[in-house]
Amino acid sequence: MSLADAQDADRPRAVLLWVHFDGTDFRGFQRQQDGIRTVAGVLEEVWQAWLGEAIVARTSSRTDAGVHARRMPVLVRTGTRVPPRGLMLGLAERLPEDVVVLEALDMPLDFDERQDAVAKRYVYRLTVGPVRRPLWRRQAWHVKGPLDPAAMQAAAGLLVGVHDFSAFRSVNCQAATTVRELFSVEIAPGEPWTLTLYGNAFLHHMARIVAGTLVDIGRGRRTLAQLERALILGDRTAAGQTAPADRKSTRLNSSHT
Predict the structure, then answer these.
(1) Is the CB of residue 44 less than 8 Å from the CB of residue 105?
(2) pLDDT in tens, 113-155
(3) Which of 120, 129, 150, 250 has CB atoms 3.0–4.6 Å from 244's, for a disulfide?
(4) Helix ranges, 104-223 (H)
(5) Known catalytic residues?
(6) Strand partners, 121
(7) Which of 186, 182, 185, 184 is nearest to 165 (CA)?
(8) pLDDT, tens only, 67-84
(9) How many other β-carbons are positioned within 10 Å of the β-carbon of residue 58?
(10) Who's near 144: CB < 8 A, 6+ residues apart?
């Protein structure tokens, strides 16, 4: 190995992994204490077993237990020389069946997984009707309904824009500011229904509280006036329930406000 090669081997890298996972059997993304299965924990363990290197997997957003991801950005700072495609394929061979890396990219060393994120999209799915849909049991919240899509879309329009979303966060939220911008909120009835939130950033549980509020309005349990009160005064009691993160908590959370 030449001197230049040796110096290059010691140079750190920032690698962005686009991760896809079924969150049903994970307790969220962030590593927790031993014995609790999380996406970050699995990624870190597989990486160390394969490459002999301890890493920290960081992402732009935390996720709750049971939440799925189509493409979640995960940043790893590493000294390995394995090229991006090799990292993607090597991890795909070794990761369990409910998580995979779709793509790996070299990034500038000063890339920040949170500060450099420009937008985030959350999709919440509902099955609506008197009976549940077993094919969607792992990916959708069953609401007996009926729901009024026009009322929900009117409510969605009130949420779009820059607002103080302090009424739409959990008591454990530690964000320095509660002002966020929602670029769009879309309601699409179907099998299943989809609620799509697209914004610059989200508070802890914000997506779930917005989803729960829209469902409450669709059921006629809350009004547009209450939603406006929640936005103007930051009144959590004027906003709706926190929608369940996964099917296992649906019966526990579906009546909470």
Answers:
(1) no
(2) 666 666 788 888 999 999 888 888 878 899 997 999 999 999 9
(3) 250
(4) 149-159, 206-219
(5) 64
(6) 198
(7) 182
(8) 788 888 899 999 999 999
(9) 16
(10) 128, 129, 130
